[in-house]
């Protein structure tokens, strides 16, 4: 089973991440975690620069932020906070500047938390989990506002708010896409067998009229966000599982990332 194999692979990655985390001990400002790669060999000026010639500057770091693999992180709309969701079943909200913990919810779900996101106004957080439950939280104290148990018949892999904050879209291992009212988590629409394999990523367009989905069936699809009618699709968009999809800010392009190691931009 592709999904089971993928879960096992992620579990192995989590074990490796835990081992690495145990070697870290503190929070630190990260001038010294700046990555300065070796000087590249002389190249023909007309050839493109090597990717490893770029500098990546770490401005803040939080070691042992969770006790297990962190699967999802997201900025608040105003850019002052970060939310994180982990295999340790915990959701945490951090101050961006110093990565100081502002609030946390232990046992937020009964299993691995796969996806977290802020609402457009920053007052709420949505989370999805292996426990097949979607929950909405107050972003300040992480008090639960609403939940939907058995939201899907399989692991919930991706959740996202609509641009106006009134809806939530979810994608699942059960191959289904669902759209929910964000206040009471009442089901508004659903598309069963939206893909032939697990749906790994879903996102609204900036104007809220469309939803893009990416799947382990290597296909990208665009849907009408109201009735979930298929508007367009790209089969064999990648040579392996599609792990993440997103719209550009103006809604004219879609970016996709895949297990095959490639990033692609689509019109």
Automatic annotation (TrEMBL):
Species source reads Chrysochromulina tobinii
SUPFAM superfamilies assigned to the protein according to its UniProt record, in alphabetical order: WD40 repeat-like (SSF50978)
Q: Which InterPro entries match?
A: WD40/YVTN_repeat-like_dom_sf (IPR015943), WD40_PAC1 (IPR020472), WD40_repeat_CS (IPR019775), WD40_repeat_dom_sf (IPR036322), WD40_rpt (IPR001680), WD_LIS1/nudF_dynein_reg (IPR050349)
Tell me which UniProt keywords the record has, alphabetically: Repeat, WD repeat
Keyword check for Transferase: no
State the CDD domains in the record. WD40
Instruction: List the Pfam families.
Output: WD40
The protein's name? Wd40 repeat-like protein
WD repeat placement: 63-104, 106-138, 149-190, 192-224, 235-267
| Key word Lipid metabolism present | no
Which PROSITE patterns does the entry link to?
WD_REPEATS_1, WD_REPEATS_2, WD_REPEATS_REGION
